[in-house]
Specification:
Layout lengths: L11 E5 L2 E5 L23 E5 L3 E5 L19
Length: 78
């Protein structure tokens, strides 16, 4: 498996409704930070994010977080 593409060196802060979301792990999606199927054949799979209630989240776009899918500041070291 190769390293993921760095989609951005800042998180995406979103107010999400309760529900199911698929976070892009490969960095290739044109619909960042969510999966659009661009990982096909890369060895990466999207990560399921389930929210039971509406919540503000900071989702990682550098794809190097140690707390996926949430930003942990790893982009500052890239």
């Amino acid at each position: 498996m190769t390293d993921p593409v760095i989609a951005a060196k800042v998180p995406t802060v979103l107010d999400l409704e309760a529900g199911e979301y698929w976070w892009c792990r490969c960095g290739r999606s044109a619909n960042q930070p969510f999966c659009d199927g661009s990982h096909e054949g890369t060895g990466f799979e999207p990560m399921k994010l389930e929210l039971d209630e509406p919540k503000r989240v900071a989702l990682c776009q550098c794809k190097h977080t140690e707390n996926p899918p949430f930003c942990d500041g790893s982009h500052k070291r890239l």
